[in-house]
Amino acid sequence: MKNIEMILNGDKLVITVDLSKESGESKSGKSFTIASTEGNVSVPEHDDIKIGLNIYRKK
Q1: How far is CA 37 from CA 7, 14, 15, in A?
Q2: d(Cα 56, Cα 26) in Å, to the nearest integer?
Q3: Among the four 10, 40, 44, 45, which has the fewest Cβ within 10 Å?
């Protein structure tokens, strides 16, 4: 994962992303990636629950 922190707070998933960071240009070249799970990943402590997240800004 790039620039994503996931923690459980009881039954709630809390996702933290630093919006001031970028991790480079997207593969298409149309945007800049801010954060990504880089595919589907398991939610902490719940291997049967998956999340896929991409946060980006247009060029």
Answers
A1: 14, 14, 11
A2: 8
A3: 10
